[in-house]
Task: structure prediction
Amino acid sequence: MNIHEYQAKELLQSFGVPVPVGGVAFNPTQARQTAEELGGSRWVVKAQIHAGGRGKAGGVRVVDSLDEVKKAAESLIGRRLVTHQTGPEGSLVQRVWVEQASQIKKEFYLGMVIDRGTQRITVIASSEGGMDIEEVARVTPDKIVKEVIDPAIGLRDFQCRKVATAIGLKGKLMPQMVKLMKAIYRCMRDKDALQGEINPLAVVGSGDEARLMVLDAKFVFDDNALYRQKQITEMRDLAEEDPKEVEASSHDLNYIALDGNIGCIVNGAGLAMATLDAISLHGGSPANFLDVGGGASPEKVTNACRIVLEDPNVKCILVNIFAGINRCDWIAKGLIQACESLKIQVPLVVRLAGTNVEEGRKILDESGLAFITAENLDSAAAKAVAIVKG
Amino acid sequence: MSVFVNKHSKVIFQGFTGEHATFHAQDAMRIGTNVVGGVTPGKGGSTHLGLPVFDTVAEAVAATGADVSAVFVPPPFNADALMEAIDAGIKVAVTIADGIPVHDMVRLQRYRVGRDTIIIGPNTPGLITPGECKVGIMPSNIYRKGNIGIVSRSGTLNYEATEQLTALGLGTSTSVGIGGDPVNGTDFVTVLRAFEADPETEVVVMIGEIGGPQEVAAARWAKENLSKPLICFVAGVAAPPGRRMGHAGAIISNEADTAAAKMNSIEQLGHYVARNPAHIGETVLNAMRERGIAVK
Result:
């Protein structure tokens, strides 16, 4: 689950991480008022959407008067912002974050991620802040520093000092970095974050006044841990998510829309991906990815059919079930229920295999409904593609 | 021989009295698995399926000599159940649960350091040595005994490959699902190493998917260390980048993560690659003929 920048900043602040003073605003008047309350003479108005790349897309404005704050908010709120991460349709800006502009001396990158290789939280830091870290890793890999955290002892001071030294944070900034890194680690651990990214982490002010400040923060949390993360769950912004995917997930289905015309209902992510591959190899184009998961009840199968059919491009549905913990008889009952309650008009190609397959096939045969059955993955994909090609 | 489990394995079920555990314990016993009991905290002292139920894994191990556990415990409590199995000296613990918090797995993997329990999963169908021992949720009737070792991230794609092998008269030594989560108990290399050491396994099939470096890393290890032919398929050629395809681990985050890139790298390392998920079986058969390995 993703959260907005302003939510990440508020969360980090609660862990003692220094962030600029600011406030969220849902309309231009509120934005102006927020800036006025914050005081100062220069502000940053930042569009709040989940996608990255906002700066380059014009979603971040630095302004020098309260009227300009209002104007910037007017030009952002209610518009669709298109960044390299949103796709061409962009993402609707519903709020902005207004903060006092910082006197930036230098920018760094600091990230923490659960690394698959080490199976531990790993710190990634770089002296090249404010840039795309994947680009830095590709072009100048020596500018990337990594430090692996042992979950039994947590992030130690010496590890933070190693990172600080490697990216060039010296003097009074070093103990600040130790404190900041440990706070971010605690936030990751306590809130079940999969990834936390501070880009940029800035040095603001000069001389004795120099201090570290988090200017942008992006956090991703573990969906599987939300049951124990009430505060994070409340930060979920459904408006940032695809409504059909939200609906599917409310039925415990995993749905991703694609742009073809063969609807897919499959159990298991791997087989679901392989089914899309088989359709493509036969020259067809899948309309969606849909994993019904394990223990699919007839109701779940009906919901899956309904969600797939909400896509007007769907000309045929391919059902591919290889039951292990599922039962083919439940799936068959679900399909019959779906045909009757949804009055399905498009052809259904059904391939059943695995647990209780004989019972499942018998139920389909005896239903009198016009299912097109297939013996294996290859023939199921071939039949579905032949149908849509007419 | 086989890997991890065989007819001598003494299997317990954690979460024994639950619906899925009951169903799959019965199926496991039907194919000859030596199920010796189960654990359901609070129900110790009772019997289920004619077998003793214990409150703790330690008690179950002491009373039955169990060395393998099938963990059918809901995700929020699963990592704790696995630690209990490790603590009790279980040799192989298989966790079926889909949805264990990743931080729980990070802590679990740390707890395992210095202990020799093999954890299979989470989010796996488990493992099966056909005719001897099933610890998981796979439909056991599709597997027949043979000389092919299978290791996969996906469960249902493992079934798919197995059905293709069975249809061609080929059989399995042991089939292992390592699971679709980003942090899992056992990686491909651990399973490949076990297959290399197993005289009954003459051919190895590895089924991966988009996301992460593990398939290519395993193929690289196999080039140096696996004397048996390796046949691979990687699912997700048609998957769009940046979208998580069901499995928490299945997301394309850079160019090396795509299915096509992985299959190209694996092929360049000198292994066999099935480009079409429907052709896994025949790719295996062709490889066996080329290497002069008997079909059994």
